């Protein structure tokens, strides 16, 4: 390489010597000649010393944005742009350049090495990132190590590698969330023994839990599309101080991708697409996204379509339960008659397939450095989703239902968010979020041999306003978070019977009060963080929530309710106190005390439905909130950048727990429902229950290419009032994974494990779906998975996966559908 600095020095010396001895025309010629050489040297100096360098991820070849390059000799520095490029000036062959990024291992390279690699630097992602930022704990960015509760982040590159079909599968793949499924088109997350309306789902700062989130099993999380996410975080334990009602077991906080502005002048255009095929359920998925960014205006669009066929379960069965989970027959409508048809492939779970469409559109405008305005449209719709566990249900030796499915699951959310960033007396950062949601949830069922098809249709409208403020009281010592929330729910419930041959409609009992229901929440919170020293950090918070509920029961044709309306008013004061203690540089102890609450919603107090064969749930207008008091302790050991181990233990006391119990309706302990004499039950406040358990997680870099990670969770719950097991408690579960990463290649081999759930440990109230288990409970199981991705170029990636390699048949606890058998996944991704 030409040393331009020496060339410049030599030519300057020659130029001066010749000028001293020159005269006349020779002087003029000499000046012009050497002035030209001088200008050329300067231009060469600028061109060579400001060489463009590209910084890429070594495995995916994707550009690394905001990587820092620093010349240790000259002190020159530069930061990479959206294309991963930067110009570093004033360099020479012997100089050493340090390349840094928070998420990647630091590299020291000589300029000659960079030049030999065509001015491209490949960096290895850190498995252990001690400076990782999360936003879920207080709704603002914080160092994960400063948070006293357990938080598990989910990154988009991990999602792309794992290739989950739904958001429920994505949560299960962490190994730290248990997921129950009643049908393939579903997935009900369980966190620390809490499920459904006792865990909270948040999307872009807006709560998804609404007034009809039930206590059984929910499929709503699948309305979210994993490929739309910029990040996701699972917060374990009560989160009511920041998030309010329902956050008893934890919070699943999802952040969808945001439009990106142009870093330099001009247009910032990037996008991507992928297609995926899976053999176990004949999945066919297509996705595309596009970002258009200017200096102050940006747009992001994402579109995803999925189509699933019927799910094939594993073929290798437990010899003690050879027929468990097999689908030997199903119902078809032939020539106007319901006919039982023999299934030629009993491992194929007939009528589990469905399709889904997701759209995300965001617009972002930044008028100045202080304000940032963003509009978001979230749309999810599906085909009819078969309720497989009901379609496989028998009564008196015969299939009970000819049809049972959820109508298209429609969710639309419009959001408008204002971000303000300024050093004022009231805030440093302020976020105001307005949201409007519309949820359409329908249930359609028809008993075998009956021409009457029952339709129950629920329409929910939710309007919410959230104000969240972050204020630093003293630089890096005292930080204040505060805000307010208003959530307004409106529920309309209709029902009718449709004669499938004549089209005639006749009245039917509604699922929820037919006169309509409202549920409104008003709340304010305050949270404080104090960095006492480098070793000690203290946090504390409180929140007050005021909740009202009104329901009207007008038509008593079907059930003679002893009341005309339901009216509830509840208030709750919650608090938290957390401590982070770092006795040594590699050790950390987190301790946290917190309380949570869940206000009874419309589903709790006003629903009539059959929870399981032979039982019917009726309204109970006398419910009060259930309260949780939690203590937890986490020990964290970090050994440099090589390994990280964390162990968490928790104990939760649940008072006034809302559980199902035998009940009397107008003095009767059983009533006729859907043509069957059924035991009456209702949601009641059961007094006291307790849960305890623990979880462990480890990450270890064995070499620069090989690594290990894993997680294990145990939970136990007991209803002290009835002296019976508490429902929704999964068996011990976890995963362990071996990973290999090199240039262009990433691969993994994984073991996923679930322990036994003995039948004696099932709740007697029915929510654990005892009828879906064997006579002894849910057997333990383990499966093996393997995955590999290869990056052909910066623009094209191939993903292959083989799940359940041994083709084992298994069914997770409480689930009504068996898990996929051997499943080959093929995905092709492109980015530009």
Residue-averaged pLDDT: 90
- Structural category: mainly beta
Tell me about the largest β-sheet.
22 strands, antiparallel, barrel
CATH homolog superfamily of the largest domain: TonB-dependent receptor, beta-barrel domain
CATH topology of the largest domain, what is it called? Answer: Maltoporin, Chain A
The total strand number stands at 55
Instruction: Quickly count the domains.
Output: 2
What is the CA-atom radius of gyration, in angstroms?
Answer: 31 Å
Low-confidence parts lasting 5 or more residues at pLDDT below 50? 1-33, 37-48
Describe this structure in words.
With 832 residues, the chain is mainly β. It has 2 domains: 4-123, Immunoglobulin-like (Sandwich), CATH 2.60.40; 254-831, TonB-dependent receptor, beta-barrel domain (Maltoporin, Chain A, Beta Barrel), CATH 2.40.170.20. The protein is 9% helix and 52% strand. The chain is built from 8 helices and 55 strands. Strand 18 (268-278) and strand 19 (283-293) form a beta hairpin. Helix 1 runs antiparallel to helix 2 (24-49). The chain is globular, with a radius of gyration of 31 Å. The two termini are 33 Å apart. Residues 1-33 and 37-48 have low confidence and may be disordered.
Draw up the topology in text.
Elements: H1 4-21, H2 24-49, E1 51-57, E2 68-71, E3 77-79, E4 85-88, E5 96-101, E6 104-110, H3 111-116, E7 120-123, E8 133-134, E9 142-143, E10 151-154, H4 156-162, H5 167-172, E11 178-180, E12 188-191, E13 194-195, E14 200-203, E15 206-207, E16 229-236, H6 240-243, E17 250-256, E18 268-278, E19 283-293, E20 297-308, E21 311-312, E22 329-334, E23 337-342, E24 348-349, E25 354-365, E26 371-382, E27 385-386, H7 388-391, E28 394-395, E29 398-399, E30 401-406, E31 410-421, E32 429-447, E33 452-474, E34 478-499, E35 505-507, E36 517-531, E37 536-552, E38 565-581, E39 587-598, H8 602-606, E40 615-617, E41 626-639, E42 643-655, E43 658-662, E44 670-673, E45 676-685, E46 688-701, E47 706-719, E48 724-725, E49 733-742, E50 745-754, E51 757-758, E52 777-778, E53 781-793, E54 796-803, E55 823-831
Helix pairs in contact: 1-2
């Amino acid at each position: 390489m030409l040393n331009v600095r020496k060339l410049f020095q030599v030519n300057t010396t020659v130029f001066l010597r010749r000028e001293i001895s020159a005269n006349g025309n020779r002087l003029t010629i000499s000046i012009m000649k050497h002035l030209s050489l001088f200008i050329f040297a300067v231009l060469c100096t600028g061109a060579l010393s400001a060489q463009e360098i590209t910084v890429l991820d070594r495995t995916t070849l994707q550009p690394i944005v905001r990587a820092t390059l620093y010349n240790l000799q000259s002190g020159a520095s530069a930061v990479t742009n959206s294309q991963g490029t930067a110009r570093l000036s004033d360099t020479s062959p012997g100089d050493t350049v340090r390349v840094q990024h928070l998420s990647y291992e630091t590299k020291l390279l000589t300029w000659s090495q960079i030049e030999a690699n065509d001015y491209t630097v490949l960096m290895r992602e850190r498995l252990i990132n001690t400076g990782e930022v999360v936003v879920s704990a207080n709704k603002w960015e914080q160092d994960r190590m400063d948070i006293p509760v357990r938080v598990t982040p989910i990154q988009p590159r991990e999602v792309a590698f794992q290739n989950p079909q739904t958001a429920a599968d994505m949560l299960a793949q962490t190994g730290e969330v248990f997921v129950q499924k009643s049908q393939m088109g579903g997935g009900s997350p369980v966190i620390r023994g809490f499920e459904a309306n006792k865990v909270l789902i948040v999307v872009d700062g807006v709560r998804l839990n609404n007034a009809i989130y039930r206590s059984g099993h929910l499929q709503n999380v699948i309305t979210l599309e994993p490929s739309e996410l910029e990040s996701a975080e699972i917060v374990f334990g009560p989160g009511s101080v920041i998030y309010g009602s329902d956050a008893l077991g934890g919070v699943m906080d999802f952040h969808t991708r945001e439009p990106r502005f142009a870093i330099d002048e001009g247009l910032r255009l990037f996008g991507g697409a992928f297609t995926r095929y899976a053999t176990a359920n004949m999945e066919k998925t297509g996705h595309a996204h596009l970002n258009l960014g200017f200096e102050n205006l940006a747009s992001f669009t994402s579109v995803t379509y999925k189509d699933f066929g019927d799910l094939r379960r594993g073929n290798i069965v437990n010899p003690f339960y050879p027929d468990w989970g097999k689908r030997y027959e199903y119902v078809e409508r032939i020539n106007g008659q319901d006919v039982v048809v023999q299934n030629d492939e009993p491992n194929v779970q007939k009528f589990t397939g469905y399709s889904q469409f997701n759209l995300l559109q965001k617009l972002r405008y930044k008028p100045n450095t202080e304000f940032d305005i963003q509009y978001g449209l979230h749309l999810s719709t599906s085909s009819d989703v078969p309720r497989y566990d009901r379609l496989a249900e028998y009564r008196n030796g015969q299939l009970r239902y000819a049809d049972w499915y959820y109508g298209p699951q429609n969710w639309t959310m419009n959001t408008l968010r204002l971000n303000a960033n300024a050093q004022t007396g009231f805030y440093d950062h302020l976020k105001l979020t307005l949201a409007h949601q519309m949820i359409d949830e329908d249930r359609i069922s028809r008993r075998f041999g009956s021409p009457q098809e029952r339709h129950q249709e629920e329409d929910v409208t939710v309007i919410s306003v959230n104000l969240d403020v972050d204020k630093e009281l003293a630089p890096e010592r005292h930080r204040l978070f505060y805000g307010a929330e208003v959530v307004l729910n409106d529920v309309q419930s209709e029902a009718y019977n449709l004669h499938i041959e004549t089209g005639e409609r006749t009245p039917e009992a509604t699922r929820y009060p037919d006169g309509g229901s409202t549920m409104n929440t008003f709340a304010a919170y305050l949270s404080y963080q104090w960095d006492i020293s480098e070793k000690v950090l203290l946090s504390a918070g409180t929140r007050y929530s005021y909740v009202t509920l009104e329901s009207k029961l007008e038509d008593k044709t079907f059930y003679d309710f002893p009341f005309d309306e339901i009216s509830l008013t509840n208030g709750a004061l919650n608090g938290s106190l957390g401590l982070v203690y770092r006795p040594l540089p590699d050790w950390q102890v987190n301790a946290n005390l917190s309380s949570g609450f869940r206000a009874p919603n419309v589903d709790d107090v006003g629903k009539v439905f059959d929870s399981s064969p032979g039982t019917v749930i009726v309204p109970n207008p006398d419910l009060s909130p259930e309260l949780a008091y939690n203590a937890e302790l986490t020990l964290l050991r970090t050994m440099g950048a090589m390994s990280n181990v964390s162990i968490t233990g928790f104990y939760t006391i649940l008072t006034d727990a809302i559980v199902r119990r035998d009940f009397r309706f107008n003095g009767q302990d059983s009533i006729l429902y859907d043509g069957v004499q059924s035991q009456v039950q209702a949601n009641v406040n059961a007094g006291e229950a307790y849960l305890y358990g623990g979880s462990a997680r480890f990450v270890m870099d064995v070499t620069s290419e090989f690594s290990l990670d894993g997680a294990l969770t145990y939970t136990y719950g007991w209803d002290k009032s009835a002296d019976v097991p508490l429902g929704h408690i999964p068996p011990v579960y976890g995963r362990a994974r071996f990973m290999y990463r090199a240039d262009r290649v990433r691969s993994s081999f994984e073991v996923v494990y679930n322990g036994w759930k003995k039948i004696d440990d099932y709740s007697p109230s029915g929510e654990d779906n005892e009828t879906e288990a064997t006579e002894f409970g849910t057997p333990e199981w383990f499966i093996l998975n393997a995955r590999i991705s290869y990056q052909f170029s910066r623009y094209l990636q191939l993903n292959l996966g083989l799940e359940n390699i041994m083709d084992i048949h298994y069914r997770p606890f409480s689930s009504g559908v068996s898990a996929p058998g051997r499943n080959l996944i093929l995905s092709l991704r492109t980015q530009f």
